[in-house]
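Service request form, structural biology core

Requester: graduate student, group of Dr. S.
Request type: structure prediction, single chain
Budget code: on file
Notes: please return the result as structure tokens.

Sequence provided:
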Amino acid sequence: MERVKKRIFHYKNEYVKSVKLVHHDVATNRRYRLDIELKNGDNEKAVHLMMINPSKANEEISDNTLNRIIKYVSLNNVAGVLQDIGKIIITNLYVVCETYPEKVDEYITVQSLDFVKGIDRNGKYNNDSIIEMANKEAQLIIIAWGKGYIFDYDKRIQEIFSLMKNKEIYQMEDLTQEGYPRHPRTWAYSWKLKRYSI
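Core staff response, request fulfilled:
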């Protein structure tokens, strides 16, 4: 049986100046924070974008979702809420690298929920602290985790909202029918960011 080759995505040179894995733990397959500096905009001005969990993207390899985010910010940082933004900080509700979010539950079964959230006692980093630091560095936060099928998903979202008090939070267009902020894989480049109220 012939193996299907997975498509490899690369960062687009027209938009990206540099990519840095700020916090990651290769030994446990967990990524906590990824910073992307853009060619246009001010690299001292950042947007913090939060999704559900990382895929396989690192400093060398991108993915379709990240490329869409990068292009969206690059095309929309000349005016509006993203004006002059030159840096994208990526964090996630959960830190295990898995292309299919529904498989994250398997890590919970084998390891623990705290391991998957990145706040386990023996962990190299604390994801909640990293998220709080990203919140302080960014001019605005975009929540974009979509609907999840992970154990205690809504409880995890509430934990994250407690780290975002008194911050400017945005979502893309309206919430989904289920009430979740839209994941970037569905974004259109013409869509608008809207303020989110906790």
